[in-house]
Amino acid sequence: MGEYLDALWSDLEQTWDLAMKVNDLPEKQRGDVEAAWQEFKGSQLVDVQRTEQEAEKPPKKIFCTNIYGIEFNPETKYWVPFRHGEIDLAKFTED
User: Fold this and answer.
1) Beta strand pairing status for 78-83 and 61-63?
2) Is residue 66 part of a domain?
């Protein structure tokens, strides 16, 4: 379970780090979804093609290349990770 869980945790940390680049901005700036998208889409972690195909415009849900993504919460004006991919439970018994 160790290596697989470590990889999942690392992916989640990377996704949080990306979200915090915008969350650390003042509320008015982080609440500007279009400006946030411009910031996010420059990251290699972001699946730009999938986000542009599946999300509204401007996207309030950003898909990452790992199993996570970042979603805008309009009440709090923060971007928070969500999971869009599957977790392979069989791998928890392999390590």
Assistant:
1) unpaired
2) yes
